[in-house]
């Protein structure tokens, strides 16, 4: 496992070294903040230009990890669709459907 992690880190560093900028999105924990993050990410995706809204790496903890997984399912450059999906997920999430 350590060899895989090292190889992955080296590959990521090599890829980032070739780029002029590297954007990383780190999402915090908390269920309420995770839903709030969806709205913020949607707003950023709709207002920032393509260069400034494309992320090279995404990480998250607890509720932020849910958002990170949903966002990482989309290709770089498809942030508007990813943000729409994220917002739809949290709009449809209710206690009654989450805890059945």
From TrEMBL:
This is PNPLA domain-containing protein. The keyword Signal applies. It comes from Strombidinopsis acuminata. Residues 1-19 form the signal peptide. Keywords: Signal.
């Amino acid at each position: 496992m350590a060899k895989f992690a090292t190889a992955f880190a080296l590959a990521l560093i090599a890829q980032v070294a070739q780029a002029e900028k590297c954007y990383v999105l780190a999402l915090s924990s908390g269920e309420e903040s995770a839903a709030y993050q969806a709205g913020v990410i949607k707003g950023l995706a709709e207002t920032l230009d393509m260069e400034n809204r494309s992320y090279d790496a995404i990480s998250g903890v607890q509720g932020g990890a849910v958002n990170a997984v949903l966002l990482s399912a989309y290709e770089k450059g498809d942030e508007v669709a990813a943000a729409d999906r994220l917002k739809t997920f949290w709009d449809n999430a209710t206690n009654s459907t989450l805890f059945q």
